[in-house]
Amino acid sequence: MNMLIADDEEYMREELRDALERVSSGNTYYYASDYDSAVDTIGSQEIDIAFLDINMPGKSGLEIARTIKKISKKTNIIIVTAHEEYALRALKLFVSGYILKPVMDDELAEVLDNLRVPVAAADNKVKVKCFGNFEMFYQGKTLTFSRQKEKELLAYLICLNGSGANRAEICASLFEDKSEEKGIAYFRKIVQALKKDLDKWGLGELFIHNRNSYAINTSMMDCDYYEYLSGVSTEADRYHGEFMNQYSWAEIYIYGLENY
């Protein structure tokens, strides 16, 4: 799901995002700190759910809600605030929910299960999280693999942003502790296992293999790293100097991100 979190406090945006990942993982997040940035996002993106703080600089979250009602009738609005007294005014706007801070996971899950405008369950794109630890999600579930190196191979190819790599290049980065002969043999096993696991998920086309070239089908995924590179300012909120923390070879990309 595409979610907008509008709050003038950065730490509150992060806390709500973390709570959402606990109860409904694999979403795409956009951020706003005021009325103008929130409305701009609603106008340029298909937002399924907008979480709005009431007290923000300039126009309030309730005013944002009124504008959203006019320009995006399919967007669910959930008010998130520390103030109970706004509940009646919010409900008169026919919002999908009203949650008091601090947000509790069970309350958040209940609101998501009872949206005024149901969000289509089918989501055919893989959600990829590169900032922090590398994770992949599909239809709200974490993608798991029979071998950890399968996941690392996908991470390596995702960093190439659609470009291909040959077997020798991949083995040099992922299997540097093995001899060339053992590395190639192990790599073949990883590729076979990866294809089998992706087929189980119905994602066989995600992994592209042509002779001695391996790549990822970027059209099948929503990736925070790609959004950052494309200049979507809302994604910049998510990068805090950490990138694919599990993999030492990924450190070379941090320099590029910090000087992008």
Brief overview, please?
The protein has 260 residues and is an alpha/beta fold.
Q: What does it look like?
A:
By secondary structure, this protein is α/β, with parallel strands linked by helices. The protein is 42% helix and 17% strand. Strands 2-1-3-4-5 form a five-stranded parallel sheet, with helices on both faces. Strands 8-7-6-11 form a four-stranded mixed sheet. A two-stranded antiparallel sheet has the order 9-10. Helix 2 runs parallel beside helix 3. The longest helix has 22 residues. The mean pLDDT is 87.
Which key features would you list for this structure?
single chain, 260 residues, alpha/beta, five-stranded parallel β-sheet, four-stranded mixed β-sheet, 11 helices, 42% helix, elongated
* Net shape: elongated
What's the number of helices? 11
By DSSP, the count of extended strands is: 11
Helix/strand/pairing category? alpha/beta
Q: Give the N-terminus to C-terminus distance in angstroms.
A: 28 Å
Quaternary organization: single chain
Order of helices and strands: EHEHEHEHEHEEEHHHEEEHHH
How would you state the average pLDDT, rounded?
Answer: 87
- Helical percentage: 40-55%
Q: Please give the radius of gyration in angstroms.
A: 21 Å
- Enumerate the strands of the largest sheet in spatial order, edge to edge or round the barrel: 2-1-3-4-5
Report the portion of residues in β strands.
15-25%
Q: How is the biggest beta sheet arranged?
A: 5 strands, parallel
Question: Low-confidence spans: pLDDT under 50, at least 5 residues?
Answer: none
